Amino acid sequence: MKQFGITPKILQFEQCQEFCEHFQIGKGDLVFISDRTNEDYFKDKIGDDAICINYRKYVKGEPTDVMVEKIYADIKDFSYNRVFGIGGGTILDVAKLFALKNIVPVVDLFNKEFEIIKEKELILIPTTCGTGSEVTNISILELTAIHSKFGLAVDELYADYAVLVPELLNNLPMSVFATSSIDALIHAIESYTSPKANAFTQLYSLKAMEIILAGYQKIAQNGNEARQPLLKDFMIASTFAGIAFGNAGCAAVHAMSYPLGAVYHVPHGEANYVMFTEVYKTYQAINPDGAIKKLNGFLADILGCDANDVYNQIENLLNHIITKKALHEYGVTESDLVDFTEAVMTKQARLMANNYVPLSREQVLAIYKKLF
Fold first, then answer.
1. Which residues form the Alcohol dehydrogenase iron-type/glycerol dehydrogenase GldA domain (predicted)?
2. pTM across the whole model
3. DSSP codes joined into one string, 54-88
């Protein structure tokens, strides 16, 4: 029985110049990269013969099946052997699909209605400190037909190389830092309490939590600019969390955030934060023993509080990074809560299977109502 694995080879370069010298990007390469990242960091470093895709040309918000099919239509007649994804979670998740032999129709791909074959080399380079996608075998898209995010998790989506280049975080806005790093923190926490967790995954979960929370404490004390010398640490913590959840999985926090992100276009990490503490308070009420007891003790030591007050204190800390909002502040209606619950219970079984304790339809709806 497989317990743990790190499939991509992890490389680290301090500067983009070193990365480009190593990989020599040019003819035969498909590169997913935003125009801004290209201009800021890769000007004159990527060969003119490379096929560069600015995904913002195709979508303004989260990635969708429609967006992927439009990109495919534009590049299907080009020949390429390597796929580079340079960006946040959106870019990395989309780039993964283009390493496959068969991509469209995307809904059929995500429903595994045809054979999934990887035929291109895949190199993923994150430009935020939260996705962890560079080391996972998961691609998340909004499937427009069901108005919800949906994940494809198959080993063919693993990168050949996950490349960390801290220079790419130099211009990261505070808002993106906040939402991406909170996402990484929740990756670490959810994977720690997953039934699939083990001693190996929990080692990475704990270290990611430690780095991120220690960084948040410095930011809370010294202001937003205190994040700058910590960005490399946050990037590494994000990859640690990616390794953990890539093996043990995420759960209800992510599952419940997906309808909010898909319908109201709330940034992924922010949507996760909205759900996070109420889900864990519910877990605690149902079964205060087991992995959550160990988690709470670990968090209490970092936060300097009583274990029973962990989730209030962690919320106080995270509010220095991004302010938590009620669901109605995003435009969510009471009727949406029923629809969100239905989407979670029928479309997110892959994630809900990783819950610390099982949650019923009634319990999920009750969480949404408390957050409303």
1. 40-165
2. 0.95
3. -GGGT-SSS-BHHHHHHHHHHHTTS--SEEEEEES
